[in-house]
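Suppose a colleague, Dr. K., hands you the sequence of a protein chain of 138 amino acids and asks what its three-dimensional shape might be. Before reaching for any lab equipment, you can write down a predicted structure in token form. Begin with the sequence itself:
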Amino acid sequence: MKQLVKIISVVIVLSGYQTSAAESHADSDMRAKLIGSWIIPKDSSDYQPELARSLETYFADGTEVFSTFQDRACRVVLERYTAKLNVENGVLTTNSAEFGEDKDDILNITDRNLELHSRRDGMIYTRTRATNCGDTSN
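The predicted structure, expressed as tokens, is then:
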């Protein structure tokens, strides 16, 4: 009986390790795909015209910079905020002096699109890989 209990304990420990390793690999893949700049597309549920010319940029060193611009060329910065970021168990956590901690479930991430679920307000919103700083129509 003791032998059976030991075997079951080993199986439970190993299965937890495999799950943890799989989650860790998935998290590192998500972190790698996040690196770069993203815009708030017009069809995102959190789109606001005043943020039409903005970038969310994620860096490999674990920082995020959110910038809004005045001009179409994206050279005149109106605001810039920096945050620390982490991805763990599929959750993107950002922490900044201005806004505190925020947590979002990463629902889907590809090379071009990002879909997130805010744990703060329950909103599902999207980001699109940036080719410019956002809406340059005006």
